[in-house]
Amino acid sequence: MKILVMGLPGSGKTTLATQLAKRLNAVHLNADEIRDLFGDHNFSRAGRFTQARRMRDLAEIVTRNGNIAVADFVCPLEETRSIFDADFTIWVDRTQKGRFEDTNQLFEAPPEFDLRVTGEYHVDDILTAVNGS
């Protein structure tokens, strides 16, 4: 299973993904760490597509080996979400604006998602939703 935890910078994606991955005994793929690993901090539109493909490919390696992948990254466009192709999408919608104006302008609210987190949350409730999918 590939789980996408997406939303604007500063919304709490990494905190949630870390907790979720730990409880699911899953592999956590953090976009900032992946960008550091590849030495790629290109946030242009093309760079965001590259990152979506990279995150997808890494998540597919994880799942192919029988593990759950929890990926957290902004994934700002419907197209980037389509590229990643999550089995379960969590939209962390807890901030109106992130700290990067270019990302704020580019970000498209997802028309489809499996779970939307808008305030405080309990990981147990999120696990119930994920396990019920």
Task: Briefly characterize the structure.
With 133 residues, the protein is α/β, with parallel strands linked by helices. It has a single domain, classed as 3-Layer(aba) Sandwich (Rossmann fold), CATH 3.40.50.
Report on this model:
The chain is of the alpha/beta class and 133 residues long. The protein has one domain (2-131): 3-Layer(aba) Sandwich (Rossmann fold), CATH 3.40.50.300. The chain contains six helices and five strands, in the order E-H-E-H-H-E-H-E-H-E-H. Strands 2-3-1-4-5 form a five-stranded parallel β-sheet, sandwiched between helices. Helix 3 packs parallel to helix 4 (78-84). The radius of gyration is 14 Å and the shape is globular. The relative contact order is 0.25.
Strand segment count: 5
CATH level-two architecture: 3-Layer(aba) Sandwich
Count up the helices.
6
Placed side by side, the strands forming the largest sheet appear as 2-3-1-4-5
**CATH topology annotation:** Rossmann fold
Shape: globular
Order of helices and strands: EHEHHEHEHEH
What is the CATH class designation? Alpha Beta
Whole-number total of structural domains:
1
